[in-house]
């Protein structure tokens, strides 16, 4: 996706919500294609980094500690599986929406 968008004159990695959108897609792929099991995921080390550094949350929110943020996405130590709660889907959709809206602004400026 990044390669295609760059070929169209956009820079998605400069978008302030790129990290969260990328994290959401990576977590989604692990949940759907590997049933959340890190042993079957190609991105196991990336997922561990996303969870440890809370990349799925925007930078401003990461600076603070809120109850429940650490529970949205976690790796179950017993089963070594990614677990997400329902609020993660809500938050991820919000970040992805902002990411896509930012891309439309980039696209409009690239086509002018």
Low-confidence stretches: none
Q: Mind telling me the C-alpha Rg? A: 15 Å
* Sheet with the most strands, sense and barrel status: 2 strands, antiparallel
Counted beta strands: 2
Give the ordered list of helices and strands: HHHHHEEH
The rough form would be described as globular
The helicity comes to 55-70%
Report strand order across the widest sheet: 1-2
Query: Distance N terminus to C terminus?
Result: 22 Å
Walkthrough of the structure:
The protein is mainly α. Helices cover 59% and strands 7% of the residues. It is built from 6 helices and 2 strands; from the N terminus they run H-H-H-H-H-E-E-H. Strands 1-2 form a two-stranded antiparallel sheet. Strand 1 and strand 2 (81-84) form a beta hairpin. The longest helix is centred in the last third of the chain and has 26 residues, at 86-111. The protein starts with a helix and ends with a helix.
Give a brief description.
By secondary structure, the protein is mainly alpha-helical. It has six helices and two strands; from the N terminus they run αααααββα. The two termini are 22 Å apart.
Please tag this protein with its features:
mainly alpha, 6 helices, two-stranded antiparallel sheet, 112 residues
Describe how the helices and strands are arranged.
Blueprint: H1 2-7, H2 18-33, H3 44-53, H4 59-62, H5 69-72, E1 73-76, E2 81-84, H6 86-111
Antiparallel strand pairs: 1-2
